[in-house]
Amino acid sequence: MNLAARLAPLAPMAAACLAAPLVLGACASTERPRTPAAQAGDLRAAAASLEAANPVQPLPVPPLGAAGELTDLAFRVTPEKVRLGRWLFFDARLSADGRVSCATCHDPAHGFSEVEPVSTGVHGKTGTRKAPPILNAAFPIYPVWFWDGRAASLVEQAKGPMANPVEMGMSQERLVATVQGIAGYRRHFVEAFGDDRVDLDRIAEAIAAYEATRFSGNSAFDRFDAGDEKALDARQRQGRDLFFGKAACNQCHLGPQLSDSRFHNLGIGWKAPPPGADPRTGFSDPGRAAVTGKVEDTGAFKTPTLREGSRRAPYMHDGSVATLLAVVELYDRGGTKNPWLSGDVKPLGLTAAEKEALVAFLGALVGEGYQDTAPRLFPR
């Protein structure tokens, strides 16, 4: 019998070995199963690596110009809760397709907003609004969140995107089950809350705790107001004078947040409907009116913070205004006329040089305190 004939009976076994080389009995293997002690050692090593990559950090001190104390918030903010919230904020496993996290649209590189006109969520679905920045978001003048003010607390705000079918697409039950199913999160819930119970309120509160630490301050504007006359150049100082004077931007962009937390109609998105049609149909997005039911709130949206504004073009709730100069020109012409145009919006009569000075001043609102990058390791 030749060699080929002798090897023929072994062919099925060889095929099985190639198809499933790690299945016990399919072929000879020198690899032995991991012992419980070895597996425990692996878990300890993984936990040590996670801890080294994501240590608990002291709570930040608000930078110059960013008023607000974390101890004054309605919910307790601790270093352990912030660390847990940071993981959850960046963890794409909390979305229906495993590809979208809070940070997908609230990108640290762009002032925790985005550079797209509107957000893209799970399965490539696009929304109708641009993600608003979360900078200094824990300390608004009035307790309203989102472009339309539908959330009454920072914790409530954190719940919204996760449940939204376009954004992250997770039902409460599925979200909780997903986090519960990640064993590595359990001890971090114990650290943050005292026990390992996982529910929607705790997930949202941890995320809100992280968001509350995203301060923006110590900008050139803040330093100038604190007495450093060299912090702004001549054109920026001219822009500042216009901001608080002729242009009256501070009617709505006021306080440390540079936002009055109110809702104003600038005519963004207005298209005059046909004669005889309900004028409200001129806005595809009703804005604040969808929350209050008041016709006078049609087309009104919350005043956004101006901090880090130069990092997140395009602008407005629908991303329809491409540049800061275009924003200034919109205000200069008195917005877009419609039945509910805000009474605070009037033509300004700015010169080209004055518009450029205002843009230069807005560029001086870039600061520090919020910067971050995604965690390298997550609980498993």
Topology:
Layout: H1 3-7, H2 11-19, H3 36-53, H4 79-90, H5 102-105, H6 154-163, H7 172-180, H8 186-193, H9 200-212, H10 220-225, H11 234-244, E1 263-265, H12 289-292, E2 300-302, H13 324-332, H14 352-363
Antiparallel strand pairs: 1-2
Helix pairs in contact: 4-8, 4-9, 6-9, 11-14, 13-14
Question: Explain this structure to me?
Answer:
The chain has 380 residues and is mostly helical. It folds into 2 domains: 44-212, Cytochrome c-like domain (Cytochrome Bc1 Complex, Chain D, domain 2), CATH 1.10.760.10; 220-363, Cytochrome c-like domain (Cytochrome Bc1 Complex, Chain D, domain 2, Orthogonal Bundle), CATH 1.10.760. It contains 14 helices and 2 strands. It has helices spanning 3-7, 11-19, 36-53, 79-90, 102-105, 154-163, 172-180, 186-193, 200-212, 220-225, 234-244, 289-292, 324-332, 352-363, and strands at 263-265, 300-302. It has a two-stranded antiparallel ribbon with strand order 1-2. The radius of gyration is 27 Å and the shape is globular. The model is unreliable at 1-29 (pLDDT under 50).
